[in-house]
Amino acid sequence: MPEGHTVHRTANAFASEFGGQQVWVDSPQGRFSAGAALISGQKLKKSRAIGKQLFLLFENGLTLRIHLGIYGKWNWRTNIEAKSFLNQPVVGEVRARFFTETTVAELRGPTVCEILTNDEVQAVERRLGPDPLNPDKFTGDPRGEQYLRFLNKVQRSPKAIGLLLMDQVVVSGIGNVYRAELLFRAGIDPYTPGSRLSEEQIHSLWKDAVALLKVGVKTGFMITRKELFTKNPSKEDRNFVYKRENQPCRVCQTNISIAIEAGRKLYWCPTCQR
Asked: Does pTM surpass 0.90?
């Protein structure tokens, strides 16, 4: 499942390619035909992401919410003659297709693809946790509204921090890769209850999430080793512990551990993360 940085990159792409323009929408597969009819021909006013969810606001006040889930993916064609491309046979099950004269974006296999009113959008937003990539609202507290929401949710929970970081109600956009890497970089045992973490530890996790997700938006890759931020490393070299079970830790040489937690693989160094 794409993590938050990928969805923010998609939001940026929509803003760049479709923002302020009249966008046509159809559903070759047919499953989104009714929804497509409500927004096709409307101008795209705003494109934004909250964690793993994309929100596209159109000039008629309706919003399209998209959550890729495990199987969803995008296919983009830019700087083309869209009319010619659209006349070609459709490949695969395309749930929704967005197009102007020069750009086509095809959506396949999303978990969610639905039209929402403003009230319904707000209801979804209230269910989602703070997103490290989204700006804070002014609250008068220099620590920031988003961080304070995260702090409150972690401090009040007896659940393991390794579970909390994967809970989109606690924090939006963190997935399995960033979960493992954030905890390693902070030196925190993934089984530590959130309520037992100090505010310094929680703030460190939040600041690091902000920094790493920004790198992901910029590069398109989940790179967590600082010395590789400006390079294009292979998948095997990008991270400290993710998918490195039974291999020596890059810091202390202890073999990386793996366990199944809530149906997902959890990676950590038993020495560096005591």
From this structure: yes
